[in-house]
Amino acid sequence: MRRVVYTVGLPVILVVIWWFVSAYQNSFFWPPLPTILKAFPATWTTDRLIHDVLPSLARLAIGYLIALVAGVALGVAIGSSRTLRAMAEPVLEFFRAIPPPVLIPLIALFAGYTGWTNKIITIALGCLWPILLNTVDGVRSVDEVLRDTARSYRLGPLARLRHVVLRGASPRIVTGARQALSIGVILMVISELFGANRGLGASIVQFQRGFQVPEMWTGIILLGLIGVALAALFRLVENRMLAWYRGQNHSGS
Questions:
Q1: Mean pLDDT throughout 218-238?
Q2: How confident is the model at residue 97 (pLDDT cuts 50, 70, 90)?
Q3: Is the pLDDT of residue 134 over 90?
Q4: Of 34, 102, 199, 201, which one has the fewest beta carbons inside 10 Å?
Q5: Could you give phi then psi for residue 72, rounded to 5 degrees?
Q6: What average pLDDT is seen over the chain?
Q7: In which domain, by residue range, is 205 found?
Q8: Mean pLDDT of the region 90-97
Q9: Using H for helix, E for strand and C for coil, what is the string for the chain?
């Protein structure tokens, strides 16, 4: 019960504050919260959810999974080899310094402004770097004693990769995956601002350009709720994957 109160307490307080403060506002760009909530069901109908929200989430899922697989695979390879790490480090630092939204016009030149391809590539590239860099650090931090012990027991390369390298690096990999998910949600919206006529981000922009301010706010609120739901889902997966790690730390303390 205490955890539930801590979880929902601050959001409830913020909503109440927003409700009373906005009730006395006459600004066209900041309508009262009851007005926004009243416009919500009329705006996000089943048809709009199917044709705008679900495709956005599908592009996010595809781009994120591509980044997850590529980031872990490349991170394990780079983190396991000093030579490869020395060769790749300047390139990684170069691309890490480039904000992914800057690459959207360049990606659109090759993949086109319409369709799914450029949006998926944008999301994948943005999500790749935190996963890749955290995987490299996680693999490098695996205890050499564990590696030597695995060799002494004559574990094969795949067994060492699964039970030693990936298991030891999993806390850092999960950290990078959590960071990448937040970046992916942001890029999901940004990628739809260029040449897209459907999608959650495109809908918010269309509402803004049409001076449909309450509808625009409903899109922003929906985007925030999606972020909360994705974070909760990720936490469930994280707790299941790292149960051994938390139990180890708890027993050690």
A1: 92
A2: confident
A3: yes
A4: 102
A5: -70, -45
A6: 86
A7: 49-243
A8: 83
A9: CHHHHHHHHHHHHHHHHHHHHHHCCCCCCCCCHHHHHHHHHHHCCHHHHHHHHHHHHHHHHHHHHHHHHHHHHHHHHHHHCHHHHHHHHHHHHHHHCCCHHHHHHHHHHHHCCCCCHHHHHHHHHHHHHHHHHHHHHHHHCCCHHHHHHHHHCCCCHHHHHHHHHHHHHHHHHHHHHHHHHHHHHHHHHHHHHCCCCCCHHHHHHHHHHCCCHHHHHHHHHHHHHHHHHHHHHHHHHHHHHCHHHHHHHHHHC
180 pLDDT more than 80? yes
Question: Can you give the CATH number for the domain in which 85 is found?
Answer: 1.10.3720.10
Q: Nearest-CA neighbor of 79 among 153, 154, 176?
A: 176
* 125-132 average pLDDT score: 92
For residue 251, pLDDT over 60 is answered with no
Report pLDDT digits (tens) over 64-77.
999 999 999 999 99
Look up residue 61 and give its two tokens: 């899922």
For residue 213, tell me if it sits in a domain. Answer: yes
Per-residue pLDDT, 166: 84
Query: Into how many domains does the chain fold?
Result: 1
Cα 64 to Cα 106, 179, 211, 247: the distances in Å are 20, 11, 33, 28
Contact 159, 101 (CB under 8 A): no
Q: Is there a domain that residue 212 lies in?
A: yes
Distance CA 140, CA 226 (A): 34
Q: pTM for the full model?
A: 0.88
Residue 41 domain-assigned?
no
Contacts of 9 (CB under 8 A, 6+ apart): none
Answer whether residue 252 is part of any domain.
Answer: no
